[in-house]
Design goal:
homodimer, 323 residues, alpha/beta, inorganic pyrophosphatase (n-terminal core), Diaminopimelate Epimerase, Chain A, domain 1, six-stranded mixed beta sheet, five-stranded parallel beta sheet
């Protein structure tokens, strides 16, 4: 692993030599994008670096309890002498403003699909989160993990692992989390903020979807309408993560959620258990996704789309011999 | 800490000298009771001990994926030459059959309320779970942590910490979890079984409760009826843990759930945020509990009990100056 150690050292030296650093993470930022950005950014600032934090889509309200979030800018600054990309598998994930004009010097990420688009590429696919990579390397590069840095990094680790439960969890990730607690991060509080806390409106909206839950053998589905969102005063057009709860219903092979949009279309989300690849179903309806999580937006009324999609899904389950 | 080390050693010797051991945990067993019981029991068996595993209420269906569960007996055996109590704060928690006739030799627990009722009392209140205490001591006592032992103990740790998020979480508990993964426990699978997996009927039943959600300032409440349970074909009379989801609704001080029972009574559950002690409310209605979680069973119709309890709860919130 001397090659890895050498890369590690070169990345550390690059950070050390730079004085004006642009740190950026991906569009539609999640907890790991934000936690990695703030974690690295604040650590560099504490050593006297001039750091610009960049997220094209800004920081969502649900992460504005993290120290330093108000420094995050939505406009890139061309003046930096070093550009660091975090948690992005390819350059386009940085957003159109930055991607067009920027050479990335250091690309730090944990996605297996990373395209190694940086001058230096510190990509560790065994890491549960990009924040885990930073927590492991910062001390060796000479940056101490202060309580605000630890809080940001632990948020990244907790969110990307859904509370330490994704299939890629490792003993190392748990030990890094323990180290971050000792460095001053309040695990229960950060966890509550990032994963547990729910709005009144979201839970009321869940009521509509769950009340209408139906099953046929190992296929489970439900729907939510525009009227449901109005009744619950739920502000978004999304499903308030209902699909993730449906995916945890036991004794199912496939779950489907129909979400009525305002434009004569129905958004359909599928989730499946291992052994059931639902990508062909989503492709058939002009959508896409992964074997275990796919979606499509289909023109029609709720009743029409439900009938078509349920029939196709049943046909698919029957054709696999498990339906 | 030499006193602690001495106790540790004496407990280890007692286990070593015994050949017929009764291991017992508490009534209405949770994941830590079952995980600790199976973890210690299987470790002793692997060293050739004759072990009887005892739970007065048996093993609930949701934990029957753990190796060894089918050995658990609901009848105590008077023939043991050593009795170990796990996760019990007092003798009565073992159940009426065992508590009446048994001298406990070794009492292993993490509750701060533990009465030290054993001949030897290994009580560590910094532990998140009794399973954590066992995981830390078994190797020193000469018992290796096999994959089935690790799976049982990690189940105890994951469930008592609600997925590593309770306010008593420690770096040590995370590191013990990491060790148990390395000893062969599949964290994502055990976590899914213990905390994530839900029945179709429970989620449909949630729909009724969440659909009816109401709020007045920082007080949030809802109700579930016998008709709701019939419509969802939900088998229990409980709330399917709806109260725990209500407790995670943000911008609340107190949440209340009204659960219509079949006997002309309404079961009322309160949960509160720090700073709001709801015990007086529960006591006022003949119930009890803790500052943040209390309950009562009140005679009357749903409408009558809702009106009384909401009025009292509002009065209480106003009297604290925060309502």
């Amino acid at each position: 692993m001397s090659q890895q150690s050498e890369l590690d050292q070169v990345v550390g030296e690059s950070l050390h030599q730079a004085s004006k650093i642009l740190v950026a993470a991906h569009i539609r930022p999640d907890g790991d994008a934000i936690g990695s950005l703030l974690g690295l950014g604040l650590a560099l600032q504490e050593k006297g670096k001039s750091v610009q934090l960049f997220l094209e889509d800004g920081v969502p309200a649900s992460f504005r309890h993290l120290p330093g979030w108000e420094q995050v800018s939505q406009k890139p600054d061309a003046q930096a002498d070093l550009v660091v990309s975090l948690d992005c598998s390819d350059l386009s994930r940085l957003g159109k403003n930055l991607a067009a004009s920027t050479q990335v010097d250091i690309n730090i990420d944990h996605h297996i699909t990373n395209l190694n688009f940086g001058r230096l590429n510190l990509v560790d696919t065994r890491a549960v989160a990009t924040a885990e990579i930073l927590a492991m390397h910062l001390p060796g590069w000479g940056y101490s993990i202060s309580p605000p840095v630890a809080s940001a990094l632990l948020t990244g680790l907790v969110t990307d692992s859904l509370g330490f439960r994704t299939s890629n969890m490792t003993p190392r990730a748990l030990r890094v989390a323990a180290d971050l607690m000792e460095a001053g991060a309040n695990l229960p509080e950060l966890y509550q903020h990032a994963l547990i806390s729910r709005s009144f409106e979201a839970v009321k909206y869940w009521g509509s979807g769950f009340n209408r839950l139906q099953r046929l053998d190992r296929l489970v589905w439900t729907s939510v309408t525009q009227a449901d969102r109005r009744a619950a005063q739920y502000p978004g057009h999304d499903d308030a993560e209902m699909i993730n709860i449906l995916a945890s219903v036991n004794d199912t092979d496939v779950v489907v959620l129909f979400n009525e949009q305002g434009n004569g279309h129905i958004k359909v989300s599928w989730r499946s258990q291992p052994g059931f690849d639902i990508t062909p179903l989503a492709l058939q309806f002009g959508g896409g996704g992964h074997p275990a999580a796919a979606g499509a937006e289909i023109k029609g009324t709720l009743a029409e789309v439900e009938a078509q999609v349920l029939q196709s899904t049943l046909n698919y389950l029957n054709s696999t011999g498990n339906g």
